[in-house]
């Protein structure tokens, strides 16, 4: 059986399927609403399938339409990847890889990975974007990014992950704080301090792991500030707004106004994982995963 639908039909169908509103879809496509309705009707007639239910200005996808939306969206993303890769090949590049990452991955893991990779693949372009864990997961599922570096206990079904770094936590204190590595015994010494922590929206599972440190120490922290950037945490600690707990990979030697104490005697560790979508057809992705 052959179908005489064209790429424009698929584009119009997905616009309506995303908005479930013919007028709004027509506006995004810069065509008239009657013209869009005709194109959708033409597609349904060519396929011999009903894709939308229309009742009193309300538009719903049929069971068949929902299936087509999911499959066409996924496969059009693969087509876009293929065409973008072909365009890069035409300009003399081997391809492009889009990274998402939490800030700590940029301290050493990603720079080391890129240095290793570019030794054998010097003509690959890299796009790097700091994103919270949830936005990375969304980006991987939609294939807007090719690989992510997250701190999550669980990832959604359909994605794959590989742990690249398991590490301790560190306390961050102002340089003149009376507690230092020589007299630190346990977290109970700091129960009256104000804490500056990564925002739970940045990573709920990471935040819960940090809360577990306090639970094991027998007190609830006085959280004075939440932020999503290590630099903001360090600036607040430096100016005596509180103290903090961060992954060891965020330890820096470049700020003499703060100090770090590694928490080696607690059970909590944090894991940085590489995550990717196995449906992603970017040929550069497989090479990076093999290197990992």
Automatic annotation (TrEMBL):
Gene3D superfamilies per UniProt: Periplasmic binding protein-like II, Winged helix-like DNA-binding domain superfamily/Winged helix DNA-binding domain
Q: What PROSITE patterns does the record tag this protein with?
A: HTH_LYSR
Q: Which UniProt keywords apply?
A: DNA-binding, Transcription, Transcription regulation
User: Which SUPFAM superfamilies does UniProt cross-reference here?
Assistant: Periplasmic binding protein-like II, Winged helix' DNA-binding domain
Q: Which InterPro entries match?
A: LysR_HTH_N, LysR_subst-bd, WH-like_DNA-bd_sf, WH_DNA-bd_sf
Boundaries of each HTH lysR-type domain copy?
Answer: 5-62
Superkingdom of the source species: Bacteria
What family is this? Answer: Belongs to the LysR transcriptional regulatory family.
Q: Which PANTHER family match?
A: HCA OPERON TRANSCRIPTIONAL ACTIVATOR HCAR, TRANSCRIPTIONAL DUAL REGULATOR HCAR-RELATED
- Stated name of the protein: LysR family transcriptional regulator
Q: Which organism is it from?
A: Thalassobellus suaedae
């Amino acid at each position: 059986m052959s179908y005489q639908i064209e790429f424009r039909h698929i584009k119009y169908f997905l616009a309506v399927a995303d908005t479930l509103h013919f007028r709004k879809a027509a506006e995004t496509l810069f065509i008239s609403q009657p013209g869009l309705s005709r194109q959708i009707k033409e597609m349904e007639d060519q396929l011999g399938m009903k894709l939308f239910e229309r009742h009193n200005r309300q538009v719903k996808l049929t069971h068949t339409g929902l299936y087509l939306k999911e499959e066409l969206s996924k496969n059009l993303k693969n087509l876009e990847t293929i065409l973008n890769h072909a365009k890069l090949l035409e300009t003399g590049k081997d391809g492009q890889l889009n990274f998402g990452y939490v800030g700590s991955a940029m301290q050493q893991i990603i720079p080391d990975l890129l240095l290793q990779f570019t030794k054998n693949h010097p003509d690959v372009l890299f796009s790097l974007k700091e994103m919270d864990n949830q936005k990375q997961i969304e980006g991987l599922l939609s294939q807007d990014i090719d690989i992510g570096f997250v701190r999550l206990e669980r990832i959604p079904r359909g994605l794959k992950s590989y742990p690249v770094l398991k590490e301790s936590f560190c306390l961050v204190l102002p340089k003149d704080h009376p507690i230092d590595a020589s007299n630190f015994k346990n977290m109970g010494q700091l129960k009256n301090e104000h804490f500056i922590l990564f925002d739970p929206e940045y990573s709920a599972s990471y935040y819960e792991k940090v809360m577990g440190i306090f639970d094991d120490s027998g007190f609830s922290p006085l959280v004075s500030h939440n932020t999503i950037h290590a630099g903001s945490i360090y600036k607040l600690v430096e100016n005596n707004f509180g103290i903090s707990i961060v992954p060891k990979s965020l330890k820096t030697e470049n700020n003499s106004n703060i100090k770090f104490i590694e928490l080696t005697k607690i059970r909590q560790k944090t894991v940085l994982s590489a995550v990717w979508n196995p449906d992603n057809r970017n040929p550069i992705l497989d090479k990076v995963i093999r290197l990992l």
